[in-house]
Amino acid sequence: MLDVNMKRAHLEQMRDYRQTLMKKPELRNLFLELTLRCNERCLHCGSQCGDVTSEEISVEQYRQFLKQLKEDMSEKGKMLDITGGEPLLRKDFFDILGAAHELGFEWGMTSNGTLIDDHVARELKRTGMKTISVSIDGLENTHDEFRRTPGGYKKAMEGIENLLRVGGFEHIQVTTVVTHKSITELDELYRIFNDIDIDSWRVVNMEPMGRAKTHPELLLTDDDYRTLMEFIRNKRIAGEPVSYGCSHYLGMEYEREVRDWYFLCTAGIYTASISANGDIAACLDIERRPEFVQGNILRDRFSEVWENKFEVFRRDLADDNPTCAKCDQKEFCHGDSYHSWDFDNNKPQLCFKDILF
Questions:
Q1: Tell me: the pLDDT tens digits for 139-188?
Q2: Which of the ends of the chain has fewer CB neighbours closer than 10 A, N or C?
Q3: DSSP sequence for 281-302
Q4: Exposure of 30 in the CB half-sphere (CA atoms within 13 A)
């Protein structure tokens, strides 16, 4: 375990840095939700993706938006994070990302991997994809059941193999959403991923949002959370590229132990998103509520929205919550992640106090 005094000093620096960012935000990650359509029906999906019909921004509209973004804010130091739904379901996917690449934007994507054949892998390379995270949520039967997609595991693993064979990408990652049912499979999953040449394994817990709320039996127990953190920490001590996701303040024992740096919810200060219909918001995992929509790229200039709105995200959630106010970790947690806050009842849906610290 790292020195607690050192951690506290770092967290105090993070606290002060966050205050600066809220006054002068710095866009680093812009998520583009290309579609809400998906060829899988995952039990945890926060966006309720699947066989849905929704408005989608056209290639030309994306091109004009990105030109405007480059003109107003520069493409330098910004990563386009492409997501969905399953973004590769867009037949014009490579037209959109080809335009982004021509304009000098760096981009990466999240995908279920099932549509990545050899041709798609080569097209991803041609259009400049830097990074990709492919979802593998358990061993074969568990994965297919969780994603309600027979054969999904085999197709996703083939997709990863195709990416590795084509090569030339900066980072190929696997992301695993761990449930109460799949947590016993971590060791076997590690052996599988260790045998293929991926760059990292990102392990996250199932979050209480979207479809997950209708499957409470899959949410991790307190013991499961402790097991998960110990598993990740032990792998990292051994020098393995395994990490916990960006979500949640973990307390003094696990902060900086299970990921590369300390907790910071970047919604609205580093991170913004464009929904499939053009709505401008912060992190796409945050509950879709009208008050969180800051504008729409079809009628608003993004740079002006970023500079003049987003106030709802640039504050401490903990300030108005009496339970958080009593917590001695409030100055480091700030109310935890926006995506797991219960805005109707003004409290966190997931808090690791009394679980991990």
A1: 999 999 999 999 999 999 999 999 999 999 999 999 999 999 999 999 99
A2: N
A3: ES-TTS---GGG--EETTTS-H
A4: 27
- The token duo for 96 is 């959109």
> What is the rounded distance in angstroms from the CA atom of residue 310 to the CA atom of residue 292?
8
Rounded CA gap, 116 and 162, in Å?
7
Residue 276 and residue 262: Cα distance in Å, rounded? 31
Under a CB-based contact definition with an 8 Å cutoff, are residues 198 and 160 in contact? Answer: yes
| CA separation for the pair 151, 30 (Å, rounded) | 32
Q: Is 140 helix (H, G, I), strand (E, B) or coil?
A: helix
Task: List, for residues 68-109, the tens digit of each pLDDT value.
Answer: 999 999 999 999 999 999 999 999 999 999 999 999 999 999
C-alpha 113/C-alpha 91 separation (Å) is 16
3-state secondary structure of 339: helix
Q: How many CB atoms lie within 10 A of CB 170?
A: 11
Question: Measured on CA atoms in the order 321, 325, 326, 327, is the torsion positive or negative?
Answer: positive
- CA nearest 111: which of 156, 165, 149? 156
Q: Tokens 């947690």 belong to which residue? A: 333
Closest CA to 340 of 270, 248, 275, 261: 248
Contacts of residue 203, defined as CB under 8 A and 6 or more positions apart, other chains included, come to 175, 176, 178, 186, 228, 231, 232, 242, 243, 244, 245
